Amino acid sequence: MEEKCKKAFEDGKNLAKTGKLPEIPTADEFKELCEKAEHYDSGFTIENLTEYLTQLLDREHNYNTIAEAIIAGLRASLKAMDRHPNAGITGFQHGWIVHHFLHKELSIKGPAQLLKYEDMLYPQYRNHFEKTITEDTWKYLQDAAKKRLEETNGPHPNVKAHWEAIVEGKIPFGYSINTR
Length: 180
Description:
The chain has helices spanning 2-13, 15-18, 27-36, 46-57, 63-83, 91-105, 135-151, 157-167, and strands at 132-133, 176-177. With 180 residues, the chain is an all-alpha fold. The protein has two domains: 2-105, no CATH class; 110-180, no CATH class. Strands 1-2 form a two-stranded parallel ribbon. α3 crosses α5 (63-83). The longest helix is centred in the middle third of the chain and has 21 residues, at 63-83. It is elongated, with a radius of gyration of 23 Å. The N and C termini lie far apart (52 Å).
């Protein structure tokens, strides 16, 4: 398997020059290869993307490998679209795309935060782990709680009391408003 990964890595590095897609392994080898050879998305263009997506899907998958294939296809699509002459996104735009994608796919309706716990290794990220919310988030929570109280018929008494406390100004779960 290690040799196949190395060959796929070299094929992937040369993709932009040769137009030859890397050989994709059997379904059993697929997950390991995706982990070791993330470079697959490094040379994709709109012109060669469909062939790669077809190769990802034209094989037997199990519960895990289909998810890996879809992620590989999404990443390749992002890179191919970014390489198009009408595109060329910045790092900020890339972050926005990922953020927006997560909101859509996870049905996140309001403010959200993604924490990288590895950042706890660095003292400069202390503020990322404080139990604070922004004033905008607090306003969103109060408005959402008020709306749910008006529109929800018979919520559980504990939920109703929680929503009422939020509307009345009690910030839940020991959080405070970040005033910095």
